[in-house]
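Quick check before the chapter quiz. The format below is the same one you will see on the exam, so make sure you can read both the input and the output lines.
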Amino acid sequence: MAETSGMQNTCAKEFYLKEFESLRKEIMETLKDYHALERNAVIAVGATWAWLFHEGNEAKTALSHPPPPWAWFIPLVFVALGASRAAGLMKSFGIFHRYIEKVEVYLTEHGGPEGWEHFSWKETWAGASAWAFWATIALAALFVGVYQCHCLCQK
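Here is the expected output.
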């Protein structure tokens, strides 16, 4: 960032502070979207499994046919779509981080606190836990799909 002086510097600091407030709101909204994405992925996978189990059990008692074995892999589609969207949201968090970090450098007084982005970025487990969530749900969907497909193909 270019150094300014006098009135421009005062206005720039005010601008960056207001922009920071706006970005903070945008980050909170993005975080809400991310948490809703995780919740909705779990609901979609669970609802699909519930429907498949229900239809499989109904087929045993009725004259209808059970869902085809490949249907057990449908939850992987929800996981893949959710994970790709999550990766985009995580990338946007990285962009926010880099920009806010630059603004913090600009606004930091000599000897003052570095700012949240400088202080906390490497200390949080948010990124690792997000990848762990998507890996766990993907492995669960894959395991259930393979297991059910194997069981159904054995009949």
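If your answer matched, good. The CA atoms of residues 35 and 130 lie 10 Å apart.
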